């Protein structure tokens, strides 16, 4: 079974690729060298450099495997090329208002690019799923852990 596509912006893909290359080309070889040096020092049972190095190497290898899978499943979508700019799709920056007229501005990005503090929510988040396909003036109901909320779409923008 093929994994579902991992929608991601070009900038988000570049960040994943950069992390993969840094781990693979810089950190991992340096760590292997340290482990090799530590192994040559004799007793490995009490050798902190060796024990910590092996543990860190497993962490790096796990992360490399994860990044590799995510990049393989990645479908790079450039929001600037969105044809239907009147509706909310991947990469849209949306201003929404709740029942109390509290406004929030959100950008729908790939799940690997999320940053709630800066208003970047994952494409598969409940709020993003509810907003998909909405136009200005549409009201969408979202089921959140705190209960149901209605949001009205105030603006929809895409990068130039």
Automatic annotation (TrEMBL):
Q: Name one GO molecular function term.
A: translation elongation factor activity
According to its UniProt entry, what is the function of this protein? Necessary for efficient RNA polymerase transcription elongation past template-encoded arresting sites. The arresting sites in DNA have the property of trapping a certain fraction of elongating RNA polymerases that pass through, resulting in locked ternary complexes. Cleavage of the nascent transcript by cleavage factors such as GreA or GreB allows the resumption of elongation from the new 3'terminus. GreB releases sequences of up to 9 nucleotides in length.
Q: Is Repeat included in the keywords of this UniProt record?
A: no
| Name of this protein | Transcription elongation factor GreB
Q: Which HAMAP family match?
A: GreA_GreB, GreB
InterPro entries, per the entry: GreA/GreB_C_sf, Tscrpt_elong_fac_GreA/B, Tscrpt_elong_fac_GreA/B_C, Tscrpt_elong_fac_GreA/B_fam, Tscrpt_elong_fac_GreA/B_N, Tscrpt_elong_fac_GreA/B_N_sf, Tscrpt_elong_fac_GreB
| Keyword annotations | DNA-binding, Elongation factor, Protein biosynthesis, Transcription, Transcription regulation
Q: Which family does it belong to?
A: Belongs to the GreA/GreB family. GreB subfamily.
Species of provenance: Sphingomonas cynarae
């Amino acid at each position: 079974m093929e994994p579902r596509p991992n929608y991601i912006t070009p900038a988000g893909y570049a960040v994943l690729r950069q992390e993969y290359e840094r781990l693979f080309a810089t950190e991992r070889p340096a760590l292997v060298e340290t482990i090799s040096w530590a192994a040559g020092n004799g007793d490995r049972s009490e050798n902190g450099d060796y024990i910590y190095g092996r543990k860190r190497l497993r962490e790096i290898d796990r992360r490399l495997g994860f990044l590799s899978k995510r990049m393989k499943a990645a479908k790079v979508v450039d929001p600037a090329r969105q044809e239907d700019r009147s509706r909310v799709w991947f990469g849209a920056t949306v201003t929404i208002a709740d029942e109390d007229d509290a406004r929030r501005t959100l950008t729908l990005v790939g799940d690997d690019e999320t940053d709630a503090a800066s208003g970047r929510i994952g494409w598969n988040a409940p709020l993003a799923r509810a907003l998909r396909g909405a136009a200005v003036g549409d009201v969408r109901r979202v089921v959140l852990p705190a209960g149901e909320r209605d949001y009205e779409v105030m603006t929809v923008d895409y990068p130039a």
